[in-house]
């Protein structure tokens, strides 16, 4: 397909350099460094296998042993899920209090609020995680705690539907802290801290998370007063377009912002070290090397262009495939143009090429894991249920109307999608020796990989991206949606 983006031609050399796969020894070096930084010596990433990179055990594991906890490199909560769960925008743990989680949901439900996010053209969800979370407490001081009413969310629109039978006054007293639910102090949550840029959209569990998010990507993508974007209006238009079409664009924007900010940091460090450059040619040359360095976390990821690797939806006829892929490409271009208006940086121009944008979304399409964090509401109601008799009756009398008002959706998980640098190197097998599985104590967005059976040192660690118990043909069809034909030992054996 011919490019529709002028930057693709203008920056063809730099774009090609960014998309050039790094040599295997540099990839291994990158992951070695990452694992050392994380003090994780239990695994190794090697690029020598049949399927490109893979993760290998560097020790023996017993069954059900933790192999890896992987922090999110780039992740976000789905727009439509923000109504149900208030979580830290950086680590995705639930925040506020049981009363706030409950009151906020009932308040929005009462007003008939809906998220205007119905039109995803394509999604990038991958392996589902089983998860089971409880809550934790991590109170921070000296920072701006959030007025509960603020948390009603600027990200929502209103319709006239009213479903909640509870009086508004009761819901408001949950929100303003006047009404305390019985035993809610047994399940404390970290206080919600508002975004330092005052966008009213991001909330955090600690100042540390707020600062990390600000420095890694949010300072360019914040729509608040101290935003470092070129235009808050343009940014809002970009966000609206993503929410109306496909919120994967928000994650792609994070990747571009993340790389731009890394580039600026590297550049300022370099300028401090070496003040003078003799020629502008030399400067250009070294700017590209800085951009390549800033891009490294993305350069080592397995990638293809989004519109080339996205699975053809069932309702699209094969004869319309070319038109469908073109439509996806054009949608990405529209999104990129809006993002460019908002955060363009001339020194990072190649990042604003459609080739790079397409490959970034392709990374998410091929590698992302569903981000799932279980709600503390389940734990709260289970706690009440597990009380001894007289206390249970008393607490139940107060808690039951709230449970009934929430209905079936009383305990919706935080749901999103995330790119994990190490987990994404784990290959698929239909007879896996490990699984992505969250334990009681895993209460944030990190990916948790647990051994499914004993694994010996040197053995490749594999997980299943799908239900591995399905018949061969069904598995192959599902994995075709992930863009590959499975060649694991079980499939080779069962191949007709
Ligand atoms: C999430 S990535 C895993 C890491 C990847 N091998 C890499 O080099 O970064 C998934 C990709 O790895 C390859 N892959 C993983 N498991 C495979 C399998 N069982 N059979 C064939 N290809 C596989 C496919 O190309 C797939 O799209």
Automatic annotation (TrEMBL):
<dbReference type="InterPro" id="IPR001214">
    <property type="entry name" value="SET_dom"/>
</dbReference>
<feature type="domain" description="SET">
    <location>
        <begin position="41"/>
        <end position="466"/>
    </location>
</feature>
<dbReference type="InterPro" id="IPR046341">
    <property type="entry name" value="SET_dom_sf"/>
</dbReference>
<dbReference type="GO" id="GO:0008168">
    <property type="term" value="F:methyltransferase activity"/>
</dbReference>
<dbReference type="Pfam" id="PF00856">
    <property type="entry name" value="SET"/>
</dbReference>
<protein>
    <submittedName>
        <fullName>SET domain-containing protein</fullName>
    </submittedName>
</protein>
<dbReference type="InterPro" id="IPR044237">
    <property type="entry name" value="ATXR2-like"/>
</dbReference>
């Amino acid at each position: 397909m011919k490019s529709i983006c002028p930057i693709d031609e203008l920056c063809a050399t730099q774009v090609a350099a960014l998309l050039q796969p790094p040599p295997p020894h540099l990839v291994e070096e990158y992951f070695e460094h990452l694992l050392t930084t994380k003090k994780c010596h239990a695994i190794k990433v090697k690029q020598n296998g049949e399927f490109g990179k893979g993760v290998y055990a560097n020790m023996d594991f017993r069954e059900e042993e933790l192999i890896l906890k992987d922090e999110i490199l780039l992740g976000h909560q789905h727009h439509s899920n923000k109504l149900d769960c208030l979580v830290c925008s950086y680590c995705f743990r639930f925040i506020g209090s049981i009363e706030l989680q409950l009151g906020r949901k009932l308040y929005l439900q009462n007003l008939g609020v809906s998220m205007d996010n119905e039109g995803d053209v394509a999604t990038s969800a991958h392996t589902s995680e089983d998860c089971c979370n409880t809550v934790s407490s991590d109170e921070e001081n000296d920072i701006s705690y959030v007025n509960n009413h603020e948390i009603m969310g600027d990200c929502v629109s209103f319709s006239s539907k009213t479903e909640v039978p509870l009086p508004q006054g009761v819901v408001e007293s949950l929100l303003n802290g006047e009404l305390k639910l019985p035993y809610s102090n047994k399940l404390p949550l970290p206080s919600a801290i508002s975004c330092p840029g005052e966008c009213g959209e991001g909330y955090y569990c600690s100042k540390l998370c707020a600062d990390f998010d600000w420095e890694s990507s949010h300072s360019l993508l914040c729509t608040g007063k101290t935003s470092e974007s070129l235009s808050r209006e343009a940014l809002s238009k970009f966000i609206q377009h993503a929410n109306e079409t496909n919120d994967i664009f928000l994650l792609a924007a994070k990747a571009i912002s993340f790389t731009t900010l890394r580039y600026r940091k590297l550049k300022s460090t370099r300028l401090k070290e070496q003040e003078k450059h003799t020629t502008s040619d030399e400067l250009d040359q070294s700017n590209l090397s800085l951009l390549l360095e800033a891009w490294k976390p993305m350069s080592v990821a397995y990638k293809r262009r989004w519109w080339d690797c996205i699975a053809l939806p069932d309702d699209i006829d094969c004869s319309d495939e070319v038109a469908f892929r073109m439509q996806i490409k054009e949608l990405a271009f529209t999104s990129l143009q809006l993002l460019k208006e908002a955060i363009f940086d001339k020194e990072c121009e190649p990042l604003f090429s459609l080739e790079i944008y397409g490959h970034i979304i392709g990374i998410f399409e091929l590698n992302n894991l569903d981000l799932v964090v279980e709600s503390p509401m389940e734990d709260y109601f289970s706690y009440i249920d597990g009380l001894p008799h007289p206390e249970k009756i008393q607490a139940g009398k107060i808690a039951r109307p709230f449970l009934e008002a929430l209905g079936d959706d009383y305990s919706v998980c935080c749901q999103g999608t995330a790119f994990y640098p190490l987990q994404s190197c784990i290959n698929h097998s239909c007879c896996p020796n490990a699984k992505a599985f969250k334990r009681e104590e895993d209460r944030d967005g990190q990916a948790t990989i647990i051994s499914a059976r004993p694994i010996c040192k040197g053995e490749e660690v594999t997980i299943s991206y799908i239900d591995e118990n399905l018949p061969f043909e069904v598995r192959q069809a599902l994995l075709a949606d992930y863009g590959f034909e499975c060649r694991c030992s079980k499939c080779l054996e069962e191949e007709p």
